[in-house]
Specification:
Radius of gyration: 15 Å
Largest sheet: 5 strands, antiparallel
Number of helices: 8
Shape: globular
Helix content: 40-55%
Structural class: alpha+beta
Order of helices and strands: EHEHEEHHHEHHH
């Protein structure tokens, strides 16, 4: 039986490191995907990503792309996309092709739909989409049931946070649920969120 394991991270580097170690452990490239928010400082936004086959050319985009493609070994499938309600992302692995095939305007729904098709509950899929909107990164891995615990252990080791715990904290500050029509978080808003989670120690051992 095949199971999809999902880890949600605060940074691209954590997600890339998890993807790298999954591949080093023998999980196939065709089963490992990464999706990361690629929102940038306004001064860095020299290129707007609007098409599925265009990767951001800004300094921040290059750094994030290097982390995902180089460290994770997924450079060949790295794509940049602009998602309504979420903003610019970088995606690598099989999920990148699936999202690009959905079309830029359908990616937000495609992300949730792709996760639910893989067996993730709709509620959790919406939490994961919101995590990306707020500056996070996801790693998904399709694993045989016998290796699912191993995949989860690798993801935990690299700092995956408890998505239910994080959603509870969002709700405590007024979040009413994932909204595909919401404005993407700005770079400054993302940085404020990250500072908050670091200050509260909102990191757990369960992806």
């Amino acid at each position: 039986m095949i199971k999809t394991v999902v880890g949600s991270f605060d940074t691209v580097s954590e997600a890339a490191s998890a993807a790298r170690d999954l591949r080093a452990a023998g999980f196939l490239d065709s089963d490992v995907s990464v999706i990361a928010n690629n929102q940038q400082r306004p001064a860095d936004s020299t290129v707007k990503v609007t098409e599925p086959d265009k990767v951001s050319g800004t300094a921040t985009g290059i750094v994030a792309g290097g982390a995902l493609g180089g460290a994770a070994g997924l450079a060949a499938s790295l794509m940049g996309l602009a998602i309504p309600g979420i903003g610019p992302i970088l995606a690598a692995g099989p999920i990148a092709a699936a999202l690009a095939g959905a079309g830029a305007g359908a990616v937000a729904g495609g992300l949730i739909g792709g996760l639910t098709d893989a067996g993730v509950s709709e509620t959790h899929a919406e939490y994961y989409a919101e995590a990306v909107r707020r500056g996070g990164a996801l790693v998904t891995i399709r694993a045989d049931d016998a290796r699912a615990d191993e995949a989860e252990a690798i993801i935990r080791r690299h700092g995956a946070f408890d998505i239910e715990d994080r959603a509870t904290q969002w709700k405590s500050t007024g979040w009413a649920g994932y909204n595909p029509d919401a404005e993407p978080f700005t770079f400054d808003e993302i940085e404020r969120d990250r500072t908050q989670w670091r200050a509260t120690g909102s990191r757990t051992t369960r992806p």
